[in-house]
Structures are given as C-alpha cells and as structure tokens.
Amino acid sequence: MPADGAVTHDTLTPRRRPRAGGQDGGVSELRIGLAGAGPWARRVHAAGMAAHPRVRLAGVWSRRRESAEQLVADAGGRVYDRFADLVDDVDAVAFAVPPGVQAELVPLAAVAGRHLILEKPLADSQAGARAVAAAVEAAGVYSTMMLTLRFDPTIRSWLDGIPAGAGADTVGSMRWLSGSLLGGPYAASPWRAEHGALLDVGPHVIDLLDATLGAVTGVDWAHRADPDLWRFGLSHAGGAHSTVMLSSRLPVDPTEVEIAVFGGAGRHLLTSRPGDARACYAVLLDELVDAAATGRSCSPYGAARGLHLQEIIERVREIAG
C-alpha cells in the first residue's frame, strides 16, 4: 500500500469464492470483514459484531494499518494489509469508509459474491452511486445500508401506524438540527466537512419521508444558508408534499429531530431520536444473517435504495446552487 494510504487497483483484485448461505438455511455463523477503522467503525460496526451471537468479525482492512491494529486489539480478528485478502476470507464485507472509497471498493466485493453492509451515502457523487448500484445488481448479492432510523423498533412501529397512499391532502415535515460538525469524533471527517449535512444526514431524512409519505418523485425547491443550513421541499407519489430543514453546524445538543405528518393520512408526530445505534445495527445483522441463510438477495435498504436517495440529494444540491 502506498505510504499515504491511497487505494490502488493492484491491491484490490479479490478472488471469487462461493457466498455463504443457501436454500437449506445452513448458516450458523457469518464471517464479516470490516473495511475501515474510524470512530464509527469502532463504536458501531465492530462493537455490534462482537455482541451478535451469529456473526464474527473476521478482521479489518484500513487505509491506515495502525488504526486497524488498534481496532482488532479491542474487538478481535486480524489485520489485513490487502482489501482483496479480506474479501477472499469472509462471507460479507461491512464498509465504514468515506463515500468515495466505498464507491471504489464495493464493486470488487460484489463481484466476489460477498454480502454487503453499506454506509450512507452510497458514494460521493451520483455517477459513483450509479456504478455501485449497477455492480451490486449484476452480482446478485444481498446488500443493506446502515440507515439507522429504519432499524429502530420504535420508528418502525411509528411507520406502521401511518396509512399507505398519502395523497395531495397530506403534508409532512422533518427537522434534523445538530452540532455534530462543530466538535466531536466526526467533525474531523474531511468528506463531512466538505459536503456538510446534506450528504451526511440527508439520506436518513429523505429515506424516512419517502417511507412515510410515498416515494419522492421530485424536489420542489431548495435553499442553503450558513451555517450549513439546508431547507428544501419534496413531492411524493400520490401528491403529498414535505419540507425539510437540516444542519450539522448549529450549537444544538442533543440533536433536535422531529418528523410530522398532517392531513388525510391523519396526525402523526415523532420527536424521539433513534435508540442506540448499536441496537439498530443488531437488527440489521439479524436481517443479514437471515438473508444469507435463505439465499435472499433483495433488501429494501440496499444499494438501489442508496442510489434513489443520492439522486434526490444531487437534485437538492443543483437547485440550491
């Protein structure tokens, strides 16, 4: 690996081997390799795998070997110097790397037949997201994305209580305001600093409104103001409309999260943040192991979902200028 930790194609040539799982449901333990060793990888991915009875953290690959060594010292597994070797050794790959790196690595794991745990956003560009989604679809592997809100039991129950098919007589709104980029473990992330709340928090917000009011079909308007304050309006299949306000650079602690639905679909208000991210990750792992056992290759939270969200985000950015 180059001294600066850059990814080269010479190090990324995985050797294909059959995926774990099958119609006989014979998966007793899923071996997962982790790409990335930053704060989120340690706090959620590695900790979640260590606590789950049906998965095992096989090892870690990172662009910075010392970070991988620190992670495995606490969580177990081995350090891989080559991403290809990690892919060759596991049943699934979990990604906790910047979006641009994820876009480069996912197709290599997909073509090797590995199940995929993806992070949002899918890539750092719409073109990259399209390439990832196409590679996953062509490989026919199971992919799921860590859209934390969608794996929280309380939020799932709230969604179940909203009638399907919201029409033009229904409006929704969502607010997500935090100071996460003012300090703390994620404030030093270069891609978050560059793209702000829209690329970081936007997938969560748009995904939940999409699930609540119907598929987002367009962006009605969009504005951006300092400090990293995004406001935009969405139109949904069936005629419903929603508004969004989000920022990661406001002095707000704890994070302010609220989603509201009013009109023909009734009155539904949710003001609680999702529970512990590791608990949500445990639900994701449950579903991944079940999919591996049955040979299922379709998840509502997979790469295709990530592409849909990224297309909307890019449209918001275009309109906001």
Automatic annotation (TrEMBL):
Keywords: Oxidoreductase
InterPro entries: Gfo/Idh/MocA-like_OxRdtase_N, Gfo/Idh/MocA_oxidrdct_glycsds, NAD(P)-bd_dom_sf
Entries under Gene3D superfamilies matching the protein: Dihydrodipicolinate Reductase, domain 2, NAD(P)-binding Rossmann-like Domain
Chain positions covered by the region annotation Disordered: 1-28
Keyword Oxidoreductase on entry: yes
Location of the Gfo/Idh/MocA-like oxidoreductase N-terminal domain: 30-141
Listed name of the protein: Gfo/Idh/MocA family oxidoreductase
Organism encoding this protein: Pseudonocardia acidicola
